[in-house]
Write a structure and sequence with these properties.
141 residues; single chain; 7 helices; 2 strands; mainly alpha
Length: 141
């Protein structure tokens, strides 16, 4: 377990889960980022996701962050994702170019309804997102 996860667990055990109304949107987002990348502690991510769902109903957190963490937890459990936010990276051997990095979406449940779910979560259409991800990863569109 990394130091950020340890600190967050200590914070949550003494202060409870903190949201926009208590610490502001920027701090809530920073906490979410640490939880989002705490892949070595899936139970911690799952507990936070439960609390995050409640905070969204109370308008104290961002539904987009809920979508990303939902997909991250599902990917970490080997399940299909809901919102299409998580990618799978692998290296393949191309006969011409040699070793090439490939990025593709982690499998998605009900792909025909994906853009509808993404829109409800405040996310851009999947094709736009994939183009942005390829650009960020220096891959051709």
């Amino acid at each position: 377990m990394d130091n950020n996860t340890k600190r967050l667990k200590r914070l949550f055990s003494t202060q409870g889960y903190l949201w926009n109304n208590e610490i502001g949107k920027i701090a809530t987002h920073q906490i979410w980022l640490m939880v989002q990348h705490a892949d070595n502690d899936l139970p911690f991510q799952e507990r936070y996701l439960e609390k995050l769902a409640i905070s969204i109903d109370k308008k104290q957190a961002d539904i987009t962050e809920f979508a990303y963490l939902t997909d991250r937890v599902r990917k970490n459990k080997g399940l299909k994702q809901v919102y299409g936010t998580q990618m799978n990276y692998r290296t393949i051997e191309d006969p011409v170019k040699g070793k090439v990095s490939v990025m593709e979406p982690w499998p998605v449940e009900n792909p025909e309804k994906l853009d509808e779910r993404r829109k409800k979560a405040g996310l851009q259409p999947i094709n736009e997102y994939l183009g942005m991800m390829k650009q960020l990863n220096n891959m051709k569109k």
